[in-house]
Amino acid sequence: MSDLPWWKRGVIYEIPVASFADSDGDGKGDLRGIIQKLDYLNDGTASSLGVDAIWLTPTNASPMRDFGYDVRDYYSIDPRFGTMADFGELLEACHERGMRLMTDLVLNHTSEEHPWFVESRASRDNPKRDWYVWRDGRAPGKPPNRWVSVAEGSPWQYDDATDQYYYHAFLDFQPDLNWRNPEVRREMLNVLEFWLDKGVDGFRLDLINFLYEDELLRDNPRRLGRRPYFWQHHIYDRSRPESLEAARDLRGLCDTYPDRALMGEVCTDERDDAVAYLGDGSDSLHLSFYLDFARVRWSAERFRESVGWLEKHIPAGGWPCYYLNNHDMSRTFTRLGGGRYAEARAKVAAAMLLTLRGTPVIYAGEEIGMPMSKVPRRVMKDPLGTKYWPLSHGRDGARTPMQWSAEKNAGFTSGEPWLPVDPSYAHRNVEDLDRDPDSLLNWYRRLIRLRSERLALQAGSYRVIEDTPKGVYAYLRESGEQRIAVLLNFTSRTVTFAKQMDALYGAAWKTLVSTHGAEGEPTPHGGIRLRPCEVLILETSA
Ligand code: NOJ
Question: pTM of the predicted model, to two decimals?
């Protein structure tokens, strides 16, 4: 057992609450559903997944037009998900088994139905007017500037009643709070305090680099890009220095409670932005997502380059955080492709995620290889899907119900599921994969267990093994006497290499874990042979 804090040592598991487990038959997942599935996540034995922390997508009262990322009341639990007592029970149940619970905090915007915004839009002199970002148009019928929203289109929404525009970095029903107003800042710190007092172990901070915009609303410089959002270089509407300062304030408050953590969603296509939120490891966020990694296409070289960049640029004392997918993007199993090698690729990706230096975040369903589902237009729920269909199919495909068994509705609900269950549930489900020792699920379990047993994997240094054949990504994790080599064959060919390993501490390597068997065996002197998509995790000691 290491003395690293849990958020460095452990594995975080993202739960899309509405899609995980439904306890009351209303077709939507809920908190009691999660309580019923805690043994699956961690029952303290090798037969459970063994994750250390869960992160719940937003559970506050919400009109649910954006999966809960449109909050109506920060100090509540939405009745669709349960009650505050259920939340307390879930928190206690997690703590009893040594797990942590992180919740999602949407600090950048509220729902347009939030009473603050209802007041704010009522009149120009309402006391809550300045809680949101209101501006005059630059000319009749023209929004205040030419910014483009992350969700595309102008981020300015004209409001007839008071003849001004309000700003929304995301969708028009998600007005941005005005963080320049000290009352807003104070209120949001209160929200943090409220949940910290309840005992939550940390927060995932939605759009943390969007809290502030340029005060002068200067237009962004133009650039080339694949869609309108990328036609601008977003220097004035995101990642402003004031957002970093706010992150420091949040950290300051968080540090007055023992052992809590902040994990920022830094939404950007600039690598530098993510590391900026890691400060020197103590004055900014504990973790921040490295989106670049989640966008890499299937290639050993590209993953190695992406990780290498982060390792090089992360501030001293900062800590990496990796994920392969989440509720906003195509599920890994589909995105990584591979046809008949899809399962094998998913195993390679899992091994990489769970053995790199940094905290891994798994998205529920990834461990059973749930694909990106094709959700028909008529049942689509995601506003990005309905708005841009057929150009975009939105994010519903990543949010279909968790596949627990081959029973009706994949064992997710006894009612009518809010999104259709993906047909793959007939063979891709927890119950069936649990029985197959070689399944992806059992592979995740073994890797998570290995990680928890080896300090080198939790805390060790990271060093690339150079000069490996094309399509191989190989690295060392070392801590004190412990040396672990992770060899990942991204190709569907057999590759051999020898010198590279022999040069590293001789040939006394023993196989710890392998996708293709041979565990516990010493590797033969002078030869490493990796079969198509093989993963070998080897160990030697000084
Ligand atoms: C990022 C969240 O992950 C996404 O689901 C949400 O729609 C936007 N932020 C807006 O809150």
Answer: 0.97
